[in-house]
Amino acid sequence: xxxxxxxxxxxxxxxxxxxxxxxxxxxxVASTLDGAYSKARDVLPAYLDVMRAENMNIPEPTPYENxxxxxxxxxxxxxxxxxxxxxxxxxxxxxxxxDSYLLEAxxxxxxxxxxxFNELAEQEVKRRTAV
Length: 131
What we know:
Elements: E1 2-12, E2 15-19, E3 27-30, H1 33-53, E4 77-86, H2 100-109, H3 113-129
Antiparallel strand pairs: 1-2, 1-4, 2-3
């Protein structure tokens, strides 16, 4: 599942700062505006991974149209953008049929079959749905 969090980009001395109103502390900096857009997409998943690892509550994103810039922060405001973050779904047990030799090969390179198949499936879905 993918969630989109709103980010604000501000111009400051020497570059740009990206912040996420729903996630205080999730901040990044860049020297260019393009870099700021890119950093918004990079920092968000990493920040959410840390929150998950520390068993912190991850808030639902506020709808884009409801996120309003406060007047005190408006002076250096440049842009309001959406940054996507992939959220893990619930794991579901499933049974598959696979060639025994292939399964032995997988077991030689991986200690966790479920993780192996999950990672492989994710990569293949990305490859097949890439635009």
